[in-house]
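Posting this for the archive.
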Amino acid sequence: MADNERLPDLEEGLLDPETPWYHTPFFERLILLIFPPLGLALVWRNRNHRRRQRLIATALALVYAVPYGALCIFLLVQTGTVAVEWRGGLGPSLVRRSTQPNYKALEESRAEQRVTPLDTQPTGSPPPPYWTAFRGPRRDGVYDEGPIATNWVRTPPRCLWRQPVGGGYASLVVADNRAFTIEQRRDDEAVTAYDLETGRELWRHSYPALFQEWMGGDGPRATPAYHEGLIYSLGASGVFCCLGAANGQVLWQKNILAENSATNLTYGLTASPLVVDDKVILLGGETSEGRTVLAYHRLSGERLWSALDDRAAYASPLLTRLADQRQVLVVTAARAVGLAPEDGRLLWEFPWRVSNGNNTCAPVIVGTNRLFLSAGYGAGCALVEVSRTNEGFRAREIWRNRNLRNKFNPSVHARGAIYGLDEGVLACLDAATGERRWRDGNYGYGQLLLAGGHLIVLGGDGELALVEANPERRIEIARLPALTGKTWNVPALAHGRLLVRNNMEMACYDLRPPESRRRADSP
């Protein structure tokens, strides 16, 4: 390059006595290193630099922006200004405070409950047990015990109580005017029972166990199950116990990973126990000995049968009837299957692979012989039909697309429409064709239930919304702040009380219609 074609050096500014101090090469380079946006502005405003020189500085600043941004975030995290939290998207989110249990506040709350008399005494006999399993009595996320209040604009749901809770992502089950869950209490997992009306802790059963995972978070994941006065609970590291619902007394306890020579899953054991007849059916960890699915006697704890060599996944099993055959539906890391509840015999299978085996959503039953499968991580959704053949059963695909990608928030089905959170956005599909009817409203990676012709959506940031189950368009009635921070836990609804929790707090909202409240409150 000839001398007269040489790009002017930044030092040339030093030779110009009229150059302002903030346009000197040293200062510009210093600002480019410390704060690239301001440094670029100075370079572009300095008339001593040619266009090509400015573009080179811009390119260098853009390359530098990645480590610079990472350094800024690191310093902000180290100083406690912000926190990094995985909320379900493609990458981590920056939040002012991560959603972590406050064990000091929790212990102070429970100590106060032990010395404070009950505000109310139960009157009459409790209603029959209803929400006794994960996502309701049929595990389908549908509440049909009675009507709910839907005029949230005029009369928002009343919060009956709110209090700290331990860590973890389990939901709650309700029976005998009590709510049961499992939570992390420092280095212990604790199965706990709460009074439904007041939130007062009635009993807890604790044992040493601390499952930690840097992306998903710490603590137990699997929602307990209630059946005929007993609670069945599975911890994230395999501790399986049977407790008396009245007092928390241990009938038996074991570790299913150790007993079945299995290793834990990446994100821990998350599938809720399923009670079928005299059995409790569980999903184990990684094993090659035909023990992916396990059935134990619900009273003695004896293992009755085991099935499959698949790597287990994270979706809870459910009992249903397809093609006039009673069966247990299980989603493993590679397929969906139907098993005979009597002995674990394989009835049919359907390939269903998701990246890294992250199948987290249970199937949704659509009619008498069809089921809906969905997953995030690029998998999408499919409708599967199960039919009888001369040899037994056959599962075939009706349709498959990417119109609804549930990550860890199962859908609900109502009147030929499927509603779910498609990577955090509420969407509605035609169940027969898979056609997307609408997709609108970002609620994050939360959960939803169907009740009274409406969707109760608990958003990923703790907001509670009521949306019409309308296949034509999204009609949101109202929303309110229910919890603080990341909320992945599925809500529970029994006797008109909505129970919500995350790994920091729990609350109960009264969703009974006004006339039902008046009748209940009258002497």
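The radius of gyration is 28 Å. The chain has four domains: 3-81, 131-165+403-523, 167-312, 318-402.
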